[in-house]
Amino acid sequence: MKDILNKYMNRLTSLSEEEQQAIIEELNIEHFNKGEVLIRQGDIPTKCYFILQGCVRQYSVDEEGREITSNFYTEEQAIAVFNHHREDKSSDHTFTCVEDGVMVVGQLDIEQDMYNKYTQLETMTRRMIEENLSQVQAEFAVFIASSPEERYKTLLKKRPSLIDRVPQHQLASYLGMTPESLSRIKKRVFRDSM
């Protein structure tokens, strides 16, 4: 697991190997079980996460009690709720483990101490946030302009591992369709690829 962190830090920072090892030694790495909730909708987040292994679903429950999936996070992706600027600091979403996982867990209240100690860590975090924002903006633009079938094909091309890792009703919610529609689209796409 530490190899993943080293690779990630090498890509986003100019930290020396000694600095990387010092940071890794201070990190809290935890194992999580399938179904475990990391952050619950309505709670004020106190932690952030970096996935080394596993898949996490982000969803909210609407007024009618329906779960609406807005994202899935997998290896080398960070989970953080950026709402410090809001009066209501509670999370708008629940984050739940879709499968067993291993993650770096950061405490938001000591994050600044780590940045002060390792200035490159703040640079790495900023770059990670910029990459994530760019990806989310691109996915949103494609999602809005696409038909349900096009959304599924885009998912097949860009994030194919989700097809087998995520329950189909959650995948359908993420793609903005019913499970029945997803089933029909999957059959049609499979048939057309023959």
UniProtKB/TrEMBL annotation:
UniProt key word Ribosomal protein: no
Domain of life: Bacteria
UniProt keywords, alphabetically: Activator
Residues covered by the Cyclic nucleotide-binding domain: 11-57
Cross-referenced Gene3D superfamilies: Jelly Rolls
Entry-linked InterPro entries: cNMP-bd_dom, cNMP-bd_dom_sf, RmlC-like_jellyroll
Protein name: Cyclic nucleotide-binding protein
